Amino acid sequence: MPVRSERTYAISELAREFGVTARALRFYEDKGLLTPLRDGQARVYRGRDRVRLQLILRGKRVGLSLQEIKDILDLYDLGDGQRAQMQVALKKFKARIVALEAQKRDILHAIESLKEGIAFLEGRLAAPASPEGVAAARAFEKEARRRLGEGG
Amino acid sequence: MPVRSERTYAISELAREFGVTARALRFYEDKGLLTPLRDGQARVYRGRDRVRLQLILRGKRVGLSLQEIKDILDLYDLGDGQRAQMQVALKKFKARIVALEAQKRDILHAIESLKEGIAFLEGRLAAPASPEGVAAARAFEKEARRRLGEGG
DNA sequence: AAGTCGCTTGACGTAAACGTCAAGCTTAAG
DNA sequence: CTTAAGCTTGACGTTTACGTCAAGCGACTT
Q1: Which nucleotides of strand D lie under 7 Å from a protein CB?
Q2: Is A148 an 8 Å CB contact of chain B?
Q3: Is B106 at the interface with chain A, CB within 8 A?
Q4: A74-94 pLDDT, tens per residue?
Q5: What CATH number should be reported for the domain whose range is A1-77?
């Protein structure tokens, strides 16, 4: 099989593709999350970097800090000797999953709240100062209180 | 019915209950997200503030900025006159729901990635440098590539 | 040769979300 | 009366994640 050299990307290409700035890519490199090759002084990104960037951005979207993301990425570079670090990482991963599952619940709550907000708004837009609008508003507040376990 | 005066909270009480600092509560007030009463100069938080704080923290956990949260909270104080703002808010809410649903997917992805990471780690911990460990590592990388639609 | 593009490395700036004092008021306890 | 606890308002500091120049290099075009 031929060693068909992998497709590579210039910094601006990769940036455009992922909707980030070149500055951000350099920043990630600075922080040790990306390690592109060099052609002279220009950075050359491979598929590997593209994969990593994808993971970085996904991590960011779920609220991980760059440092946390780096910890995760670094993990796969750990040698067989560092069992201690692996144990530590394992605990962190499990804790992170618990946190993410809580976050998932938060998101579902938020979506519900927003949908209630939409109902509230649409009610008021349909019939200004109408009983329905007021009712929707009261329902929303009541619901919020119920979730906090408060009296009406 | 008696006007049984609602239970109130001192700043440190509310802070402790929600696991935030008093400074944070003052900060939220500064930004217009909370409006506690005053007893002399001391802040007095009511159930209303407690509800709002709950929404604030939940919003934060799903990645909303304080400004965005404020926009949402303010909405329920809009008069019947401001139909334009309500229309704007309605669009924002709907867009936000779409974003949150994307975020939910990200979280599910992240959880999966972490579980793969855990499998990877546990494999290596169980049998250092074993074929299984290597296999898990390769599987993980391959999976990441597959998601990006790349060739192996 | 001169200009333009895209890239580079600093270096300084910035917004968000608080943390961390400092200095002073107030209220209950000793 | 003074001490302590808990509150207040500034005001400055900090971290994260970049944005925004400035100045210069290298390749290509005109």
Answers
A1: 6-9, 16-20, 26-27
A2: yes
A3: yes
A4: 887 776 667 888 888 888 889
A5: 1.10.1660.10
For A97, which of B54, B59, B111 is closest by C-beta distance? B111
Q: State CA B62 to chain mean position distance.
A: 3
Give B43's strand partners: B38
Q: What is the pLDDT of residues A125-143, one digit of tens each?
A: 886 555 544 554 555 555 4
Arithmetic mean of pLDDT, B78-91: 80
Q: What is the pLDDT of residue B3?
A: 60
The reported pLDDT for the residue numbered B123 is 86
Please name the member of A51, A83, A101 whose beta carbon is closest to the beta carbon of B111: A101
Which ipTM score applies to this complex?
Answer: 0.77
Nearest residue of chain A to residue B59 (CA atoms): A110
| Partner-chain contact B115 A129, CB within 8 Å | no
Residue-by-residue DSSP string for B88-122: HHHHHHHHHHHHHHHHHHHHHHHHHHHHHHHHHHH
Residue-range domain boundaries for chain A: 1-77, 90-152
Burial class (CB in 10 A: 0-12, 13-18, 19+), B56: buried
Give the burial string for B128-152 (b: 16+ CB within 10 Å, else e): eeeeebeebbeebbeebbeeeeeee
Residue bearing tokens 């009480």: B13
Q: Which two tokens stand for residue A44?
A: 């050359």
Which pLDDT score, from 0 to 100, does residue A129 have? Answer: 54
Alpha-carbon gap, residue B82 to B70, rounded angstroms: 17
Residue B45: per-residue pLDDT: 98
CB atoms within 10 A of CB B16: 13
Q: Does A13 touch chain B (CB under 8 A)?
A: no
pLDDT tens, position by position, B10-62: 999 999 999 999 999 999 999 999 999 999 999 999 999 999 999 999 989 88
Tell me the two tokens of residue A104.
Answer: 């998932």
- E strands within A11-152? 37-39, 42-44
